[in-house]
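@channel sequence for tomorrow's demo:
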Amino acid sequence: MTQGYYAGLSGIQSHQYAIDVVSDNLANVNTVGYRGSNTEFASLLSSTVVSAGTHTPTADDIEVGVRLQATTMNTTGGTLINTDRFGDLSLSGNGWFG
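structure tokens (generated this afternoon):
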């Protein structure tokens, strides 16, 4: 019972963080130069039955939840907009303003 409770709780917490990232992306959809973020998750294993020294997962693996693996920034380039203003700058291709 307790193990199932913590597995569910870890899933809720991880997906709440994912919802926070998506809401940040939506809130900044019209912000010029904003780069969205993505979330990646990983499964937590408490014990794995290993036979004869192999590390092949079996049906006896016990999963105890999920955790946030990484939050990555979208690094694809956006579209360039011509503003006809002298002070506006943009980068085309790889690079960052320093």
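heads up for whoever presents: Residues 2-73 form one domain.
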